[in-house]
Design brief:
There is one protein chain. With 310 residues, the chain is mainly α. The chain folds into two domains: 96 residues, DNA polymerase, domain 1 (Orthogonal Bundle); 180 residues, Intergrase catalytic core (hpI Integrase, Chain A, Orthogonal Bundle), CATH 1.10.443. Strands 1-2-3 form a three-stranded antiparallel beta sheet, with no helix packed on it. Helix 3 runs antiparallel to helix 4. The chain is elongated and about 65 Å long. The model has no long low-confidence stretch (mean pLDDT 87).
Length: 310
Amino acid sequence: MSIATAVDGYLRHVSVERGLAANTVAAYRRDLGVYTDWLGADSAEGAPRPITDLRDVTRAHISAFVQYLGLRPESPLTAASIARGLSTVRGFHRFLQGEGLVETDVAHDTKPPKLALRLPKAISIDQVSALLAATDGDDVQRLRDKALLELLYATGARVSEVVNLNVDDVLVEEFDSVRLTGKGDKQRIVPVGSFARAAVSDYLVRARPMLSARGRSTPALFLGLRGQRVSRQNAWLIIRAAAERAGLTVPVSPHTLRHSFATHLLAGGADVRVVQELLGHSSVATTQIYTLVTVDTLRDMYTLAHPRAR
């Protein structure tokens, strides 16, 4: 089997059998393209190449490839990008062994570079309030923007989850929650606070019918000015414009509201496993990074306030 055929088989596997999102599969395709191009190139140093048969790949090749990613002259990658590329390659070789295409998984023991701990960037409650207040208004666009931002902060949803919402995903019996579809098409029900409920209700009654009349019929909850579903890029621009009107000097993105949602809940005493469920994290370890943010905040407050802290 050719290397290209093996790659296609793996991508079908992660797309169909594992149900990974299209964006994730596209990222795997790019990573494996870099890897297979490197395998097919003449070797300047490290393990001998070119490789035309995956059975000839050794652990030395995997280690040399990781080193190449960090040193390649055209665009050396960060530790995080190298770790992601290695993760793709390890998954590919695990698949090859599982399918009986190679005898051993030569990538299994290769370790990624150590990642620097990057804490999520959250903004304060006052800054969130200023951001949301910057969407006040009675025109169609402001009503939509208010509903979009209030819902992002109320649920901690990823921007893709919110822009992919349909009207039916708003559970309107009492309208106290929404149905979000996260990574791997996993659904979760997330409660919605009173401010977001009021904003979304106003939008549904006063703005969405007018926006819907401008385009083709669509079940999308949030519509653009031409009646189409709001895109992730549109949402980013909406938030950036609101941040500018609010006079915020810190970078603000859709993910900033997700980080702020988690940080503010934990600071208010919420259990980390509850926040994990609300965020749709598969592992509590992913959520626990937010506890470091709140601990850092407490430490800063202590240092400033305690007479013998410095």
